[in-house]
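Re: the request from the purification team.
They wanted to know what the chain is likely to look like in 3D before they choose a buffer screen. I agreed to run a prediction and write the result into the notebook, where they can find it.
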Amino acid sequence: MNFNRAVIKVGSALVAPSKAGCSGQYTLAIAQFITKCRQQGKEIILVSSGGIAAGRSLIHHGSPKLSTPVKKAMASVGQMQMMANWQRFFDTPCSQILITQDDLEDRERFISIKETIQIQLENGILPIVNENDTVTTEDLKVGDNDNLAALVAQVCEADSLFILSDIDGVFTKDPHIHDDAVLLPKIDEITDEIYAMAGTSRNHLATGGMKTKIEAAEKATEHGINTYIVNGTKSEVFASLIREVNPGTRFSADKNIISAKKHWLKHTVKSQGRITLDSGAVNALLNKGASLLPIGIKSVAKNFDVGDCVDLIDQHTKIIIAKGITQYSNKELRRIKGKHSDEIEITLGHEEGAVVIHRDDMVILEQNIEVEPAKIAPKACKKIKSESNE
């Protein structure tokens, strides 16, 4: 359990347990743990939920079911409360980093976030990250801070991710319902059976549940990051962590680490369109490590531009076999599909390259996803083929 750089994610149930604003009931013990880790020379990045919960008592709403504008207003005022609550526990400065899905999808902003966090760590500052709920739309939302924490762990190249919540870890059954539920101390591979054990959150202020925690663990472990789900309401948990004893569930890091770019492609970037391929192109991509050429394209769907991420679909099985960054727009691809690469410039009047998607800008999905008639099902993939580094 020894680590050098860790992301610690704290759920809203710990930040605002009474639903009446921020509290030190649980966050004090968490802050003490962070301080001890930093005194040992470890680097910590904190991902904290709780903005909406912290601002709930300050915005009149009159209903347990909150509208989106009300949530945004609560998040805006609550974020200030949450940051002040954390800062009071530390003698060193804290920083506030608010990000969206769009920030993580854009490669330049992705690198900018990474550089910012690195400089802050070098200067003894504790970065505190949250999703920018005030400006996000459904298209720009990561959606929950479990998955956000996994992406942040990737951005800052952490070696460990700790997800703190009001649960002990992953159980064989829901422990709130079944007395014979057993805690799983270690999970080496995230399978469908592990996902089947995931329930839903009972906290109406939370955006995640056990399922999102397992999704986060999958993202992190594929990037070589050991992930732990532990109970942040119990002070003895932190004593165990200091002694390097696992008090919850540990997800083992995958030894076949994929490159940062391919991890970013698989888990962070949302696809804007889809390209259907013939059997020759499918075979070339899956078995020969090839780039995508226009001759293998059968059809193009949805509107997308140069530099957008698209799904690549097998014409016969109707499943997504890969994702990648296209060098041509949907309009251009409709004109050059089925043509040889040396016909691109003649057809379009210009050429951005002989390939539509370069192998380095593509990630193969080993567990393929079936395409729905009207849309692509956004399910997580379980495993990825080993690829070369960037």
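For the purification team: The two ends are 29 Å apart (CA to CA).
Please add any questions underneath this entry.
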